[in-house]
Amino acid sequence: MAEIRVMREDLRPPTSPPRRHFISIKDVTREDVERLLATARTLERSMEREVKKLPTLKGRLVINVFYESSTRTSSSFELAAKRLSADTMSIKSSGSSVDKGESLKDTAITLGAYDPDVIVIRHPQIGAPNLVARVTEAHVVNAGDGKHQHPTQALLDLYTMREELGRLEGLHVAIVGDVLHSRVARSLIQALSLMGAHVTLVGPPALLPRGVEAMGCEATTDISVIAGADVVYVLRMQRERMQEGANYVPSLREYAARWGVTPERLRPGQKVMHPGPMNRGVEIDPRVADHADALIETQVRAGLVTRMAVLYDLLTNGPIEVKTESVLEVA
Amino acid sequence: MLFAKDTPRENIVVRGARVVDPVEGVDAVLDVRVDDGMIAALGQNLDTNSHRVIEAEGLVVAPAFVDPHVHLRTPGREDEETIASGTAAAAAGGYCAILAMPNTDPVVDSAATLGSLIEAARAEAEIPVGFLAAITKGQSGAELTEMGELADAGAVGFSDDGVPVAAPGLMRRALQYGAVTGRRIALHCEERTLSRDGQMHEGEVSAELGFTGYPSVAESLMVERDLALAAYERQPLHLLHLSAWESVQALRRARADGVQATAEVTPHHLCLTDEAIRRLDPNLKMNPPLRSASDRTALIEALKDGTIVAIATDHAPHARHEKDVPFEAAPFGVTGLETAFAALYTHLVEPGLVPLEVVLERMSAGPARAYGLDEPRIAVGAPANLVLLDLNASYRITEETFRSRSVNSWLLGEAVKGKVCATIAAGRLAYSS
Fold first, then answer.
1. Which domains, ranges and CATH numbers included, belong to chain A?
2. Which of A43, B121, B281, B425 has the greatest number of beta carbons closer than 10 A?
3. Which of A126, A134, A243 to mutate to probe the B interface, most B CBs <10 Å?
4. Alpha carbons B292 and B419: distance in angstroms, whole number
5. What is the pLDDT of residues B211-232, one digit of tens each?
């Protein structure tokens, strides 16, 4: 097993050295994020080579456990582990013992018996990764827990923004849409404010959580403010939010008309991001999605290298020095 | 209306304790002599008369506690609690009487079910226990139970606790008909279209953690409705487990206007705020949820000024495996019988937020009065209902010490101060450490 270190050592008692996890942006420091972004950049350069596989995590076991459907996150974690030569295993809730009513705790203990180095988990309930961390010896990476956190998404978004705009400090990001149900938004708000960026949330009143300003951002229902941002980050609008008894907005049509991100609402040259999957014509106009200023595909590519960086960082005796490409070459 | 095992009453002398009875206005170092379960003498250097002697120098002896809100999970979930284990836990917590809620499986909505519980209590209850019956059949909010027959069969009050009586028209009928029984109607105030899917208090912490919010107004709106109905019908009512500042304001106004409303608050709402949820500990999940710091302050003020007359644990045992899941999957409810005094002493009395006398009164005479029960008191001629407290004892709450069948306590692992050393309930020594 790799030597064990904490993400935020100042917060933990010095006596017991806990395993490092990546569960919430709240648990990492600005230095951690800088280190992870630097590692991702190093790894991205190595991806330009003809043979893309690195031997760094040879012999390590990374288990991906997905209790919710996912294309981007599950495929990029799997590829990230493979590119680093780790053994991987993917468990999906359907077709596993979860179908037979096995509890998360028992599933985690079962998988823990294989001594995995990392368990990557996506689960519909808040706090599921914490439970896995409690009952296994693995490093746990949160690939999305309910409406709580999606920290690797935030990391890849920071990576994308910095690569495209050259900075994070002082950047103004407008996050548009269903903030209430969005783990992506929660992680991103925290990550951006950690890095000194300025965040404005825009959406229908019922989809802006009461009290959200305490996270260090502004919130408004006025879509016109997005024109003032450096980056417009569009959230997915889910159909089930319009169901009877929910009524967060009257209809998708009305949502699209009032809060849809259209070319008319943007300034030329403004960068647009979306965590996917998109509802074209609802939260994002197809002309915006397909425009050169949309960074959606860049985000997907960034997802691979930032997730590689997270796995690498957890399993090596970090911190990695920023300029040492040689660390990887030697390994 | 209260039932327990029939065991011989004690002859005891409690020697040298500081006797504190806020209702009787006593605070002095005295001996207390109990003859055949009744307080026979109070004074200095009393004859022991070959009675059992409890040396209590340095301890406080107070009227034992009354918990107006306990879930004994019987019938239906005896794996979580039974009348025997729940009353043993209560005795260890310093209680001389507890009231059990009817949201069991089946619901206590018929004289037959109530009768079987009373019979069981007579066989196994370590301390006296009273049973509330449901307001509506099956707690479904559609049809009133036969409240008259249930009262005659021994119901101590009526409640659909766990579920609000949603329809105002039916609530009005319950208040009207309840008057005939002379028993208190106790209400769980929650407007479910507002609390829908709510996991925790709606506020800054829920916004950050992503939990669906259960706003304060979901409680206070229903409190306002029920107080309006009580005022209109000129009938008394009891409000269960208040959690929100707005509810306290509504209650204070209604009481000033002459509405006969009483209310209770739990130790966890008095001691904690929603900030604690950041730990994602399922043992912090309960209904109503922990609220903001200003709500907590309002509850403490209301407890002190008498707007809230009772402290109730809302002791809600849950099976270990049902709480050992992510927060959102866990059921609502925490245990409290064995930790209530220590929690309140540690979080309210020691820091100087609430005087000891107020805590003692709201844990004993207050709840008894709210349900029309005899108040435990320390006076010659009264039945012996005494609790011995060591205010200097510091210790850690651990699973091993629980007599309850469940261990879903928010205090697990916490260091606390203030310990129950012995409980005399209805004249018998129900607990001694």
1. 9-148+304-316 (3.40.50.1370), 151-298 (3.40.50.1370)
2. B425
3. A126
4. 28
5. 999 999 999 999 999 999 999 9
